[in-house]
Amino acid sequence: MLNLLKIQLNGLVLVIMAVIGRSPIVSVPLSAYLIQKNNTEQVFVSITLALQTLINLFIPRKRSAVPLTLVTLFGLLCTTVLFPPLSLPPPSGPHKVGVVDTYIPLSSPSHSSQDYVNVRVLYPTVPEVANKDSGYSRPPYLSMGSEICAKFMEFGAPPFLKSFGFLLHFWKLVEPHFYKDAPVAPIPTSLPVVVYSHGLGGTASLYSTQSTSLASHGYVVMLVEHSDGSAPLTMSQSGKIIEHYKDIYKLRNDTERGIQWDTPDYVRGRREQLLVRIEEVVETAKWAKSAFNPDSTSKLPPAIAPLRGKLDVSKGVHLVGHSFGGATVLSAGGKHGSSIFRSVVAHDPAVDWMSDETRYNLLKNTKYEGTGGYEGGVKAAKANESKGLESLPLSMIYCSNWVDINFGHSEVTIPGVNSGEMGKKGGEASVVDDSMHFEFSDNSLIMPHWLGKGLEFTKGEPERVAAEVAKRTL
Questions:
Q1: Cα torsion at 377, 378, 382, 385 (round to 10°)?
Q2: Which parts of 247-286 are beta strand (E)?
Q3: What predicted TM-score, i.e. pTM, was given to this entire model?
Q4: CB 384, CB 356: distance < 8 Å
Q5: Given the DSSP bridges, would you call strands 191-197 and 317-322 parallel, antiparallel or unpaired?
Q6: pLDDT tens across 403-440, in order?
Q7: What is the DSSP code string of 340-353?
Q8: Residue 361's closest CA among 397, 327, 390, 324?
Q9: Which of 80, 345, 404, 435 could form an S-S bond across to 465 if both were Cys, CB 3.0 to 4.6 Å?
Q10: DSSP 8-state assignment for residue 90
């Protein structure tokens, strides 16, 4: 809300300068200063300043105020009505939430090209951090704001909009509900741990709502930002930028049918990326179990060092993932079972992209094998079957849209989980009414409803869906 008021004030200042201060000698530097102080890149401001200069240069002074005023008012309409700064819904739990961004070492990477995993840790903190004089602040929602917006548009927007990353400028005005390096809350009981895997095109930031909700209820959440090229952009421990893996989309062209679809080669490429993701999730879980052991001497970020000896990891670590992340946690859980993990919650899992060994275990009693079948055929998949999911409580939560079109093999996974044929007996699969795939992440919450509905990111109630997903995940 504060950012919105600043933007409106900026616009009003520009209107006043347009009416009574036509000279760019004063108005252009002052406007630029105001924008710089607010650290935004409102598109209308750039247009206004450019037009103001042109108007003052080429239009008689007595006529310059009218067109500039109209342009400025149009900018105000865009930033306060069409593309306003939005806020994430507050978490429902009793605790305030702290955050630490860190890198954890990969002990012996066999699939990842990195030696470290980028992890965001969310945890319960003390209520005083919300006080204005506490000395703690909310970090930027996007750590690489402009770059992330540009890459997200490049990978996810229609062709004619791919170069218009500035259209997502309002994402940079979102304030998350967690506080950087805040002290750990003095909770007497040990805290359960969740390792969270984001979906294709996602980042740790774009799952802030669901992860913050878990942390507010007393969980320590470790959000993995994967280095497999599925994120729009991420940064390695060495400072190298890891960009989105765009070449894989060339494999999605089905020349026989003349459409873009998940061809066997494309799905095979995703399953290769999955190997990196599984490795990063497993290593993060192992780190949680070892580095926070009371006897460990591993170096921890100072803010979360007090968590050593206070994590409930003796029975394993919980897994949560969305879409590609759902395929990741199901495959990781299938491979390692209760030896590392405690439960698996998959939001709209991309079952087709799961590893052969675990996908076979899940689908063996159905007519499905997944696009392209199993490498080496059914016989090979059966011989290498991973049965880890049979030892873990399993929950699948689907959006109604995916169920309507049978994405994620929901036609068989929902009854399979509920009947006990898939996963450990007692599992639960459910459907959130009137919901879309992107509503499991922040995407639909940080864009205007009219735009989200137009892009089919939401059916119009993203806050309700987010709250329902958070409740069922808990």
A1: 70
A2: 253-254, 259-260
A3: 0.86
A4: yes
A5: parallel
A6: 999 888 999 999 999 999 999 999 999 999 999 999 99
A7: TEEEEEEES--GGG
A8: 390
A9: 435
A10: P
